[in-house]
Amino acid sequence: MVKQQTIQELLEVLHQKYELVKQGGGAKKIETHHKKGKLTARERIDYLIDPDSYFLEVGAFVADGMYQEEGGCPSGGVVTGIGYVAGRQCMIVANDATVKAGAWFPIAAKKNLRAQEIAMENRLPVIYLVDSAGVYLPMQSDVFADKEHFGRIFRNNAKMSSMGIVQIAAIMGSCVAGGAYLPIMSDEAFIVEGTGSVYLAGPYLVKSSIGEDVDSETLGGAEMHCEISGVTDNKFPDDKSCLDAIRKHIDRIGQPASAGFDRKIAVDPAKDARDIYDLIPADRLKPYDMRSVLECIVDASELDEYKPDYGKTLICAYARVDGWAVGIVANQRKMVKSGKGEMQMGGVIYGESADKAARFIMNCNQKKIPLIFFHDVTGFMVGSRAEQGGIIKDGAKMVNAVANSIVPKFTFIVGNSYGAGNYAMCGKAYDPRLIYAWPTAQMAVMSGATAAKTLLQIQTATLKARGEVLSAEAEKTMLDEITDRYNEELSPYYAASRLWVDGIIDPVETRKIISTGIGAANQAPVNERFSVGVMQV
């Protein structure tokens, strides 16, 4: 049996992996970058954002374990996140030219689009720090022509402009082919002398296409575009002066509108956030009290529970986080007794739990209170009694309320997140403004043990149909192989690499992320009317 890792061991893995990610293409590539007089993507962001301010990275573990045959692509070759520039929250998108010269891999398209989605939902100004060789040609068929390939990025440039969302771009390295449209479709486009260049076709392609010999500077350098073509607005001698100019421009932007979410003076939790490390068991099957975990996150550790004696496998509560009023929906992971005296399993959504949550979500929409979801869910209750009680109907009601909710939603995968439970608890498909996983998270259609046994039964049945019978030893070997493969896919890093979640975080960061997310959401007034349409009752 594989030993369960403690949360401290999982955190050590998280920190080690993140330190590796921050190295981008590696020390040699960074050194080469510096010799050209350029800052790296992360150095540019560190210089740009306000001193000692918080940068919420989105997609740090994108492409983790992917593209191994291509040499890997740490963070998808682009660094994205919400940072404070001149006191204003901005979405920052910085190409990492130490990774394959910043070339666009398929996952990079998804990551860029996610950054733009967050900016559009929250009406955040966007800063593009461009340094990319363009599409990674060996994989061009996976990035070019479909709806959510790279063309969508430029479509979003145009849409954001029409929405009044400020976009400022700095051309700090290569900017080639279709990618040239991204900075030039921004409101303002700056360029760094000597290192920045922008053109639809580079010197080699121009030579092969029309036979013209031309160098990069003449074709698309800073001097040409600022003095002759007028494509770029201003040129700067180095990265830092260009970033300084961006900061000045952001400093002049008018104040954002307010959604009016309620905020009081923040009060620290009465419990230490690090107590979470002792509250979450290493074994994902073991019960624990989710209420105690929430008390480590909310202001003054105070929860005002909604229907506390009904539908107890879901905790619904009003609270404050860093002063912001929030509504919390969280899976209770310990065994509870229903009002009818029946024992109910923690982490399972029963009919009355779903019914309670649906009503609570509607109340939060009525009161204009953002929603926070904490997952540790194995799914909805099954069996004849549950079916006769209308579990599908109750589940549909909760899913309906989540799907049609118009207040901002934020999701944290604490532990298990299986099957339809993921959907009802506002998984990625239900448009959370931000979704992060703790290192203890697991996401899949069902648990590893259940899935492995099911898959084994299917495979052995297929072999028997062919007249083949497995020995007990061969059956065990097959089960172990299936389990190992499935457990790899359960990993939060598997989810983060594919942007099913925006990242993996130390649980103590949860409070800061909620506050950052609501602060961003508060800049986008909610004008849509809340309506659930036809609801099963």
Distance between the termini: 45 Å
Q: What count of helical segments does DSSP give?
A: 20
Class by alpha and beta content: alpha/beta
**Largest sheet: number of strands, sense, barrel closure:** 8 strands, mixed
CATH topology of the largest domain: 2-enoyl-CoA Hydratase, Chain A, domain 1
Low-pLDDT residue spans: none
Helical amount: 25-40%
Q: What sort of overall outline do the alpha carbons produce when their principal axes are compared?
A: globular
Using the 3D structure, state the CATH architecture of the largest domain.
Alpha-Beta Complex
The count of domains is 3
Share in β-strands: 15-25%
Would you tell me the overall average pLDDT? 91
- Topology, number of strands: 20
CATH homologous superfamily assignment of the largest domain: 2-enoyl-CoA Hydratase, Chain A, domain 1
* Rounded Rg: 25 Å
CATH class of the largest domain: Alpha Beta
How would you characterize this protein structure?
It holds the Pfam family Carboxyl_trans. This protein is of the alpha/beta class and 537 residues long. The protein is globular and about 80 Å long. Helix content is 38%, strand content 18%. The protein has three domains: 7-251, 2-enoyl-CoA Hydratase, Chain A, domain 1 (Alpha-Beta Complex); 273-441 and 501-522, 2-enoyl-CoA Hydratase, Chain A, domain 1; 447-490, no CATH class. The longest helix is centred in the last third of the chain and has 19 residues, at 472-490. It is built from 20 helices and 20 strands. Strands 1, 2, 3, 4, 5, 6, 7 and 8 form an eight-stranded mixed beta sheet that branches. Strands 9, 10, 11, 15, 17, 18, 19 and 20 form an eight-stranded mixed beta sheet that branches.
